[in-house]
Write a structure and sequence with these properties.
Elements lengths: L1 H17 L1 H9 L7 H7 L8 E5 L5 H8 L4 E6 L2 H14 L3 E5 L13 E7 L9 H11 E12 L6 E3 L5 E3 L9 E3 L20 E3 L4 H10 L3 E8 L21 E7 L3
Parallel strand pairs: 1-2, 1-4, 2-3, 4-5
Antiparallel strand pairs: 5-11, 6-7, 8-9, 10-11
């Protein structure tokens, strides 16, 4: 499943390549691609973060946003060589001290163990994983003693709701405990159309891990959870058609702050 997802994300990199000039302008101007709940959790990294590691970094905009927040060095890990080539172009264009490592997140190199003051991940990343306990073990081993995990992710309950013709929330037939689902093609709000037709694209396998599964895996790794919060933030702009009076009723995202004790 991870191999199929790798091919699908190599194809999806086409859309990220189209955003390159915008990404250069954003990062070079000192801007950020991170959302307000993430910025609150991450805070000012100047003088406190020698190394930040971003798992499943895609094209590098979020990774280099950590550099703009004050991380001395940023490292992005992803399994898509096309995404990493784009990230490398971006870091060279803005002069950022970044490293890009091609690896499945579960196989993140051990040379990074114990070196991260911050591990950051999320924004649609966890749904592509098929072994959550192994993922959480990677988080633990990457963090230095006292280091922090900041996770901001889509809420799994999000898929239980959609919007009717009047812009109000209605229940879907989504199965909260269904496990991985196979599909081709991408939602227009998420990736949009590619030059490759949907039928010719690689299969991909996504699953909405439950909130309980995610937090239990993090706790099982040995990390200490300091904060779990739920947010109405529409992290991928997938619910832009919701009426104003309906907004804020449904948790569309969540965040976790955890720490490796010294």
């Amino acid at each position: 499943m991870h191999a199929a997802n790798r091919q699908a994300w190599d194809e999806a990199a086409e859309r990220y390549e189209g955003w390159f000039a915008e990404a250069v302008e954003l990062i070079s101007s000192g801007g950020t691609n991170l959302l307000p709940p993430e910025l609150e959790l991450i805070g000012d990294l100047h003088g406190t973060c020698r190394r930040a590691i971003h798992l499943q970094c895609a094209g590098g905009r979020d990774t280099l946003s950590l550099w703009n927040l004050g991380a001395d060095e940023v490292i992005g890990v992803d399994f898509s060589p096309r995404m990493l080539a784009l990230a490398e172009r971006l870091s060279m264009a803005v002069g950022a001290p970044a490293r890009w490592i091609e690896a499945d997140v579960l196989d993140t190199p051990h040379e990074l163990d114990g070196t991260a003051d911050l591990v950051y991940t999320g924004r649609g990343a966890l749904m592509w994983l098929q072994d959550l306990d192994a993922w959480a073990g990677v988080l633990f081993r990457l963090l230095a003693p006292g280091g922090r995990l900041v996770l901001f992710e889509g809420h799994p309950a999000e898929w239980l709701f959609d919007v009717d013709a009047d812009g109000g929330w209605v229940a879907t037939d989504y199965h909260y405990f269904a496990g991985p689902e196979a599909s081709k093609g991408w939602a227009p709000e998420y990736i949009d159309r590619l030059s490759i037709g949907d039928d010719e694209q690689a299969w991909k396998f996504a699953r909405a891990w439950t909130l309980g599964e995610i937090v239990t895996a993090i706790l099982g790794s040995g990390l200490r959870v300091e904060r779990l919060a739920e947010h109405p933030t529409d992290w991928w702009n997938g619910h832009a058609d919701v009426r104003a009076d309906e907004r804020g009723r449904i948790p569309l995202s969540f965040s976790v702050l955890a720490r490796r004790d010294g």
